[in-house]
């Protein structure tokens, strides 16, 4: 999962809803286009009538008033109703044929991701990997406040509400990395709560899941010291690394943290430098995050820790 796609925003970017790469987003774009063109046409017609009225070419005939003021709006609204109901079905429907379930839980300010909850229940964080062309049931929850799960290139957004379970189905129609963003104000660092949805061919997805099930790769050399620092500094109180420290869920699962394209929920490029900066001064990078800054770690320890985390993939 390396080689990060160009994450520029804008019309051609990884977060553009104008170049859809998913069924829900394509349906929403169709409706947007129809409404934009229809609205423009109606604007032109209304302006034509204004011009006629100004030139006093129409009388106050009841027929015009009933036709333009009642019948025409009713027809337009009825058409819109039918079209948007169809789009709603495309965005939310198809629940029965979803072969795979991914559960995403929002936290201030990161995403807990569980593949096949109830079955394999493999935990990861801050990246949602899914097979291309396969409808995936996305189960959405929150642990604290309301968040909203939105990948504009793939589908419409859906809220994550504490105490409630929301479900949607998303189908990516193209392989690629698509940027997602929390779309409901959730606190100080809400704008720093992004993620990536990674759509891969189905056989790659199976390989990814198999890889993910294993324990974190063990390392030798100077990075092995990083593992000791991780345990000594108490990181394991909040973070799990399978095979090293299990169970903690207050922070993202770090079993393959070095394999994620981005650090800090889709925000910074993943490398040893940004990892060291994060650990030493997370409160500066992401104000209000539920992790303390570790400014007191010695230089060599910090370096070893960053190196070890970077090697987990
Ligand atoms: C009190 C709980 C807590 C402790 C202790 C803690 N963390 Fe965290 N950590 C978090 C939370 C919460 C986040 C998510 C922050 C965010 O993005 O809002 C996080 C995020 C991270 C990330 C980014 C993960 C990603 O997917 O981008 C790394 C790396 C990390 N922590 C490493 C460490 C290390 C190393 C230590 C020990 C020196 C540590 N943490 C101690 C709670 C904790
Ligand atoms: Cu949020």
TrEMBL record:
The UniProt keyword set, sorted, is: Copper, Electron transport, Heme, Iron, Membrane, Metal-binding, Oxidoreductase, Respiratory chain, Transmembrane, Transmembrane helix, Transport
Question: Which one of the record's GO molecular function terms can you name?
Answer: cytochrome-c oxidase activity
Catalytic activity entry: 4 Fe(II)-[cytochrome c] + O2 + 8 H(+)(in) = 4 Fe(III)-[cytochrome c] + 2 H2O + 4 H(+)(out)
Q: Where would you find this protein in the cell?
A: Membrane
Which superkingdom, per the lineage? Answer: Bacteria
Instruction: Note the topology in the membrane.
Output: Multi-pass membrane protein
Q: Where are the transmembrane segments?
A: 34-54, 63-83
Return the protein name: Cytochrome aa3 subunit 2
């Amino acid at each position: 999962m390396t080689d990060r796609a160009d994450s520029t925003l804008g019309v051609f970017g990884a977060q553009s809803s104008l170049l859809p790469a998913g069924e829900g987003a394509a349906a929403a774009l169709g409706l947007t286009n129809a409404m934009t063109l229809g609205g423009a046409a109606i604007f032109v017609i209304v302006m034509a009538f204004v011009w006629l009225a100004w030139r006093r070419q129409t009388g106050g005939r009841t027929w015009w008033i009933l036709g333009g003021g009642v019948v025409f709006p009713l027809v337009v609204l009825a058409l819109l109703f039918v079209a948007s109901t169809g789009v709603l079905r495309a965005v939310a429907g198809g629940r029965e044929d979803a072969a795979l379930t991914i559960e995403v839980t929002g936290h201030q300010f990161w995403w807990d991701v569980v593949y096949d909850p109830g079955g394999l229940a493999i935990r990861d964080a801050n990246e949602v990997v899914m097979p291309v062309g396969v409808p995936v049931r996305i189960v959405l929850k929150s642990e604290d406040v309301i968040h909203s799960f939105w990948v504009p290139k793939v589908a419409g957004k859906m809220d994550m509400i504490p105490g409630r379970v929301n479900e949607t189905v998303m189908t990516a129609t193209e392989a690629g990395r698509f940027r997602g963003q929390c779309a409901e104000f959730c606190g100080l660092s809400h704008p720093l709560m992004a993620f990536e949805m990674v759509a891969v061919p189905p056989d790659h997805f199976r390989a990814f899941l198999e890889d993910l099930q294993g324990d974190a790769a063990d390392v030798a050399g100077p990075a092995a010291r990083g593992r000791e620092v991780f345990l000594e500094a108490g990181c394991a109180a909040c973070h799990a690394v399978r095979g090293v420290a299990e169970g903690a869920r207050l922070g993202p699962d770090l079993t393959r943290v070095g394999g994620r394209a981005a650090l800090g929920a889709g925000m910074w490029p993943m490398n040893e430098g940004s990892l060291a900066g994060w650990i030493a001064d997370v409160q500066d990078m992401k104000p209000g995050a539920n992790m303390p800054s570790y400014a007191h770690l010695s230089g060599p320890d910090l370096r070893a820790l960053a190196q070890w985390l970077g090697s987990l993939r």
